[in-house]
Amino acid sequence: MSKSDRIPRFRRGTKLRFDKTRSTWVVLAPERLFMPDEIGTEILKLVDGQRSIRVISLELAGQFNAPLDVVEPDVIAVLEGLVMKGAMEL
Amino acid sequence: MTQLTPPMGLIAELTHRCPLQCAYCSNPLSLDPPPDELTTDEWRRVLDEAAEIGVLQLHLTGGEPMARRDLVELVSHATNIGLYTNLITSGVLLDDDAMERLLAAGIEHIQLSFQDAVPESADRFGGYRGGHAKKLEAARRIHDAGMPLTANFVIHRQNIERLEDMLTLGEQLRADRIEIAHTQYYGWALLNRTALLPTAEQLEFANQIVTDARDRLLGRITIDYVVPDYYAARPKACMGGWGNRFINISPSGKALPCHAAETIPDLTFPSVREHSLSSIWTGSPAFARFRGTDWMPDPCHSCERREIDWGGCRCQALALTGDATATDPACAKAPSHFVMAAAIRQTADAGLDFVPRRLKGA
Ligand code: SF4
Ligand code: SF4
To answer: Among candidates A1, A2, A34, which has minimal Cα distance to A15?
Structure first.
């Protein structure tokens, strides 16, 4: 299976939440938290356990009017980073 | 001075009661007596205030937080107001009924502590016969409930040789995270230091095992490794900086920048019974005392790591040098760094006897 077909999901106990106090999205995970940047946030908002990396990338490419082959590597990098940190499964 | 940002986490020490008696416990030697504990209503108010000022994660700990009858109520209150709830428990009270109720209340993560990989030594060290077996049951319940599990092992001279088995146990229990924490020498652990500090060879052995396991389990199980200050060249960023990320509430309601802060004699810590969390965070002189970098002496003041480790731990500085404003002796640049090596030498021919942690004088 190519990376594009993989379906990312948050690991158990890991959630994306909007933080009203700081007006920003945060990833809350067991005994840690991450504050994704704007691009990261847009990616993570599309992670629902259904959409594949390709589908997420296509949506973002449309949203930001950018070519897929520029967007997709970013999406993969952000998600793989969170896999390494134990917050995500691919 | 940079602008004050809201706290990220609230560490709620619900009680100092605990069925176990770990000699490495970092609770203070003078434990809060049960009648002084905050009431359910008081905790609810504290949680509300925490969420209001921007706290995102709630860490329920103790002592044994499950010794509080209102634990489930508090979890449910916390999740209702949007706090991420993390329970730090020894697991010996986590039966089927408790698991079911915690789950219904919306608990998000459980950290389960083990004293060892094998029952005999675990139960001896925890001072609770049959405890290890109960923990294994608790781990199974957590897993069956579909909850993420962190298996925590505190290591020291008397169990470090079984580190490999601890990692295997964590894998068998299908933990999402395994935390291998060298004993942190506060409270009871400091009292028992000579019986607990590992040797240099033991430390090297442990480092290697953790490195290998991290490779092997990469992307599958996260391994958090807490290294021992006594062999370090640089200190830990204690609590991510004093009054910077966390508020710790003691069972009797003292608001502390770190759970050991009450050992510092010339600071007065505000009680949540008398002050709101917001006024404590922004106005308490005790929280401001070591916040940021202005308070720092040299070598910290001019050091490029001053906003990385914040000069280390104030309570450790006090405990080992008698001066809470000193650079943490864990730092090789600290004038007092030699005390670490001296402590290690002291343990060389010390016995393995320890004082079990007890609520009333042993
Ligand atoms: S370290 Fe042991 S004695 Fe201390 S609170 Fe935890 S389980 Fe209880
Ligand atoms: S001198 Fe101070 S700031 Fe620099 S590394 Fe040591 S403890 Fe940290």
So the answer is: A34
Phi, psi (degrees; rounded to nearest 5) at B280? -65, -45
Q: Where are the beta strands (DSSP E) in A6-87?
A: 9-10, 15-19, 24-29, 32-34
- Bridge partners, B27 (sequence order): none
Reply yes or no on whether the pLDDT at A62 is more than 50.
yes
**Separation of CA B15 and ligand 1 centre (Å):** 11
Burial environment of residue B298 by CB neighbours within 10 A (0 to 12, 13 to 18, 19 or more): exposed
Judged on CB neighbours under 10 Å (0-12, 13-18, 19+), A65 is: exposed
ipTM over 0.90: no
Q: Which residue from B34, B1, B2, B29 is spatially nearest to B15, judged by alpha carbons?
A: B34
C-alpha to C-alpha distance for B38 and B110, rounded to whole angstroms:
23
Q: Could you tell me which of B1, B65, B76 has the C-alpha nearest to residue B37?
A: B65
**Cα–chain center distance at B323:** 23
Question: Is it the case that residue B269 has pLDDT exceeding 80?
Answer: yes
Token pair listed for B317? 């500085």
Question: B169 is written with which tokens?
Answer: 């146990």
Question: Distance between CA atoms of B352 and B350, rounded to whole angstroms?
Answer: 7
* CA separation for the pair B37, B42 (Å, rounded): 10
Find the length of chain A: 90
How confident is the model over B77-117, as pLDDT tens digits? 999 999 999 999 999 999 999 999 999 999 999 999 999 99
**Contact with chain A for residue B27, Cβ under 8 A:** no
Residue B111, both tokens: 């950290």
CA distance B291 to B324: 13
Tell me if B330 CB under 6 Å of ligand 2. no
B357 Cβ below 6 A of ligand 1: yes
Which ligand 1 atom is at minimum distance from the Cα of B188?
A: 4
Q: Is B63 in the pocket of ligand 1 (CB under 6 A)?
A: yes
pLDDT, residue B362, reads 38
pLDDT digits (tens, 9 = 90+) for B153-193: 999 999 999 999 999 999 999 998 999 999 988 888 888 88
CA dist., res. B152 & res. B172, Å (int): 14
